[in-house]
Amino acid sequence: MDYTEKVLSEETLFKGQIIDLAVQQVALPNGQTASREIVYHHGAVGIIPITADNRILLVRQWRAPMQRETLEIPAGKIDPGEKDLDQVALRELNEETGLTTQKLVHVTDFFSSPGFSNELMTLYYTDTLTPVTHKRSLDDDEFLNVEKLTLEEAQAAVADGLICDAKTIMALYYWQLQAK
What is one GO cellular-component annotation here (predicted)? Predict the structure, then answer.
């Protein structure tokens, strides 16, 4: 069976700095029609930074959609026109932790929530961190604290719900596999 849906029309409802929202009318494989609400996003990168003493660096910050603090791997959005994702990852690592690396390993790319969004996340790993010469400033609306956790402490933070996002949970699974 061919599962392709043909887009009949698309209306943009909102254009923002981070996302655009559209509604599509589509023809389904069975000939019926349906509506699809789609969030368009430029994509993002995340970094799994492991220190020399085998701890992961996580960022504690407030997340407005959930109205609570979370612990997450350093990450950030890809700006329109940015093509070198390694450089985006190094920028975010610098900005959020004040560190850099000469060894940035691409782990995988994944869609964060393909049921409604095209956001593609690129995940990197490094275990060779060094302080930067010139730390980039955080965004004006960004407030965070860097924390170092062991794998066991990070797993406990997942169980407690403090680590609750897919990219960070995936990062912990990857780190755990590297440790074996």
Answer: cytosol
Distance between CA atoms of 163 and 167, rounded to whole angstroms? 10
What are the phi and psi torsion angles at 172 (to 5°)? -65, -40
> Residue 180 has what pLDDT?
67
* End-to-end Cα separation, the chain, in angstroms: 41
Q: What is the pLDDT of residues 86-101, one digit of tens each?
A: 999 999 999 999 999 9
Spatial CB neighbours of 106, under 8 Å, sequence gap ≥ 6: 122, 123, 124
With tokens 């660096």, the residue in question is 57
Residue pointed to by tokens 């392709």: 4
Residues 56, 148, 82: CA angle, nearest 5 degrees = 55
Note if the pTM is more than 0.90: yes
Q: CA-to-CA distance for 151 and 165, rounded, in angstroms?
A: 16
d(CA 123, CA 33): 36
Instruction: Give 148's DSSP letter.
Output: E
CA dihedral 90, 95, 99, 101 (to 10 degrees): 0
In one-letter notation, the amino acid at residue 93 is L
